[in-house]
Amino acid sequence: MYWNYYRNLKRSKKIEKEEYLTSRSVAVAGRRRKLRQPSKLLCKMEIKDGNESAKEISFRCVQCGFSVTTLYIQYSPGNIRLMKCGNCKAIADEYIECELMILVIDLILHKIRAYRHLFYNRFSCETLHNEGLLWKLSLGFLILDAYQMLVVCTTQDEKSLSASFASFLGLSGKVLTGVFFGNLIFLGIILFGTRRFLNAKIGDSRCKHILLSILVSSYFKIFLIAMMVWEFPSSVVFIINMFVLSSNALALLVITDAVMIRCIWVCFAAHAMKFLVTQGLGAYRKLVLW
């Protein structure tokens, strides 16, 4: 009798153990199936252009510029899989896993992959419609441009003048007038050249995208801040302007998908007219004061 009781107890414990292992394996399999489902997908962005219907603007492959709908799939926090481009079969955007400093270095080296990542895959629809960001970038651009004009276009006589209120007003009026009209002509030529020679449609959202690309690609003007601390020759300003011109041309190339030589000529014409307008206004102001 005791033997039968012991055998039944052992059999019941074995059944309970098998049921526990079965339920645990089912739970683990359920969690694995849950992890296989992507928790976050980078999908297409939508943007409205004037009175037109909403248009889908997909991300871009940084290698060939082909449109892709998804850059990566995230299965869990810290576990992502980069997607490949359907055209060149390469990874669509490897900058997703790179540090910000690597992106900055590639921007300075004028790599078109970095510009594609910045203007298509980093800037979202909310960025294009962020009026505050555009105003802040425009204000910073104008301040640096005003300091550049103050360094280049100010003569030695004007620098040696006593710090009187009249001389301060005259110099401020000269700088502000040159900056306002110079950048107005600059932006007008950029938009006209983009529409006329680069065959790009100009709408409300397109203008914001071009303006944002021009402002961001003028990041070399930040090096003008060093001239506030250390004394540099005026030729440094010319070198900075050449870097800004080449960066603007590359930004237009990425935005419009046009020919590189046309983008260079459009940017060169805009920068040349801006320089001529600022110099002409300075010479005219001297004649009037004389």
TrEMBL record:
This is Protein ARV. Mediator of sterol homeostasis involved in sterol uptake, trafficking and distribution into membranes. One of its GO terms (biological process) is intracellular sterol transport. Belongs to the ARV1 family. The chain crosses the membrane at residues 133-155, 175-198, 210-230, 236-256. Coiled coil: none annotated. GO terms for cellular component: cortical endoplasmic reticulum; endoplasmic reticulum membrane; Golgi apparatus. Pfam families: Arv1. Its main location: endoplasmic reticulum. It is found in: Endoplasmic reticulum membrane. Keywords: Endoplasmic reticulum, Lipid metabolism, Lipid transport, Membrane, Sphingolipid metabolism, Transmembrane, Transmembrane helix, Transport. It is a multi-pass membrane protein.
